[in-house]
Automatic annotation (TrEMBL):
<dbReference type="InterPro" id="IPR040156">
    <property type="entry name" value="ETF-QO"/>
</dbReference>
<keyword id="KW-0411">Iron-sulfur</keyword>
<keyword id="KW-0479">Metal-binding</keyword>
<keyword id="KW-0809">Transit peptide</keyword>
<keyword id="KW-0830">Ubiquinone</keyword>
<keyword id="KW-0274">FAD</keyword>
<feature type="domain" description="ETF-QO/FixC ubiquinone-binding">
    <location>
        <begin position="82"/>
        <end position="178"/>
    </location>
</feature>
<comment type="function">
    <text>Accepts electrons from ETF and reduces ubiquinone.</text>
</comment>
<feature type="domain" description="ETF-QO/FixX C-terminal">
    <location>
        <begin position="321"/>
        <end position="421"/>
    </location>
</feature>
<dbReference type="InterPro" id="IPR036188">
    <property type="entry name" value="FAD/NAD-bd_sf"/>
</dbReference>
<dbReference type="InterPro" id="IPR049398">
    <property type="entry name" value="ETF-QO/FixC_UQ-bd"/>
</dbReference>
<keyword id="KW-0285">Flavoprotein</keyword>
<protein>
    <recommendedName>
        <fullName>Electron transfer flavoprotein-ubiquinone oxidoreductase</fullName>
        <ecNumber>1.5.5.1</ecNumber>
    </recommendedName>
</protein>
<keyword id="KW-0560">Oxidoreductase</keyword>
<dbReference type="GO" id="GO:0016020">
    <property type="term" value="C:membrane"/>
</dbReference>
<keyword id="KW-0472">Membrane</keyword>
<dbReference type="GO" id="GO:0046872">
    <property type="term" value="F:metal ion binding"/>
</dbReference>
Length: 424
């Protein structure tokens, strides 16, 4: 069909021509050691050139982030907002008293409500006596002591959830940031030589906590826009995605939930939840259209942390090994693997900020917001020092989002590294 697939090769750099139009991507060099020196198996990256390049990296893609910045694609939108989603797959015994295939449970509130944090939860009854359980923690939380991983472990002890997991076996664990700003946070998705689609742009429908169908539709619309441009008598350097998007059900669906996340961020769960009920249920039934007002949240997630001296400590219970677990055992179930002798893919713009600023002000929050123990503060001869464990990385991108100084850049590691989820 004329399709070439390059599995195991990470796109590391956007390529531009002399007029600042995108002309393709460059793959990462393979076979470099920790110090960036060439190993015997070194292979240089290659340039992949195309009339149009479509970027679909998922939430907080590192190339997408650079494109948004270069072309100021987000200058007319509110900042993108994110949440960190946890998910576990459990196997239940046969004849489990509470298992009911097809049952769907969504929730809000405890335990996040105890710290004034917003988010949600889910429990899906899958075929073959399996359930998927998860917690979504909004990354605009204020308390630097909050540990999203521990909040998830605590959540599973709620009696409304624990009864479904009792006597079950945990099969897989995963974590990933999701883009939840919705229509208000969508950047301009077209630019000279390329398109930004799916969760790389932020097409997830937060009202449904679902983004696969919207991302696929975004890709289909991108294909239509590129095709029309290619067959035009005089192809434009910028394929007109926007006209396809605004004429689609994807635009209508995102319009219907355009205030969903901002309502919760601005007004909290009780009031924001009531507003969402009004906007999603009552208003469309009465007026047959979406609400005319706009609710905006213009504060970026990383700017929301309070100082450690202004924040209450949070005491998390030790895992019991039945419902709650520690990070190492969870990381094992994610199947995460990286070649240890490669350059670190997590870059600090200013390494001194961690010890000089973040540690005294926030007790270095990366120790807690990272769900995989990538960041640690060690005591080296009486002096604190940051240690980065890149081989633990789940590629959730939370550090790229929540660092209070926007000091961490996640980039793609050597191709093939990362989590290997089973059944997720």
């Amino acid at each position: 069909m004329g399709v070439e697939i390059f599995p195991g090769f990470a796109a590391s750099k956007v390529l531009y021509d002399s007029e600042n139009s995108v002309i393709g991507v460059q793959t990462a060099d393979m076979g470099l050691d920790k110090n960036g020196e060439k190993k015997p198996n070194f292979e240089p990256g290659i340039d992949l050139i195309a009339p149009y390049t479509i970027f679909a990296e998922g939430a907080r893609g590192h190339l997408g982030k650079s494109l948004i910045d270069k072309y100021s694609l987000d200058h007319n939108s509110q900042p993108q907002h994110y949440a960190l989603g946890f998910k576990e797959l459990w196997q239940l015994p046969k004849e489990h008293p509470h298992y009911k295939q097809g049952s769907v449970i969504h929730g809000v509130g405890w335990p996040l409500s105890e710290t004034g944090t917003t988010g949600g939860s889910f429990l899906y009854h899958l075929p073959n006596n399996q359930v998927a359980v998860g917690l979504i923690v909004d990354l605009n939380y204020r308390n630097p002591n909050l540990n999203p991983f521990e909040e998830f472990q605590r959540f599973k002890h709620h009696r409304a959830i624990a009864k479904y997991l009792s006597d079950g076996e945990r099969l897989c664990f995963g974590a990933r940031a999701i883009a939840k700003g919705g229509l208000r946070s969508l950047p301009k998705q077209q630019f000279p030589g390329g398109l930004l689609i799916g969760c790389d742009a932020g097409t997830l429908n937060m009202g449904k906590i679902k983004g696969s169908h919207t991302a696929m539709k975004s890709g289909m619309l991108a294909a239509e826009a590129v095709f029309k441009s290619l067959v035009a008598p005089q192809p434009e350097r910028e394929a007109d995605y926007q006209i396809e998007f605004e004429a689609s059900w994807l635009y209508q669906e995102l319009t219907s939930t355009q205030n969903f996340g901002a309502n919760l961020h601005r007004f909290g769960e009780p009031v924001g939840g009531l507003l969402n009920v009004l906007e999603q249920n009552w208003w469309p039934k009465l007026f047959k259209k979406s609400v005319p007002w706009r609710v905006m949240d213009r504060t970026e997630d990383h700017m929301c942390l309070d100082g450690i001296d202004q924040s209450k400590p949070i005491d998390y219970p030790k895992p019991d090994g039945k419902l709650s677990f520690d990070k190492p055992s969870s990381l094992f179930l994610s199947g995460t693997q990286h070649d240890e002798n490669q350059p670190c893919h997590l870059h600090l713009r200013d390494p001194a900020l961690v010890i000089e600023t973040h540690l005294p002000q926030y007790n270095e929050p990366s120790q807690r917001y990272c769900p995989a123990g990538v960041y640690e503060i060690l005591n080296c001869d009486g002096q604190p020092q940051l240690q980065i464990n890149p081989t633990n990385c789940l590629h959730c991108k939370t550090c790229d989002i929540k660092d209070p100084s926007a000091n961490i850049d996640w980039t793609a590691p050597e191709g093939g590294g990362g989590p290997s989820y089973r059944g997720m």
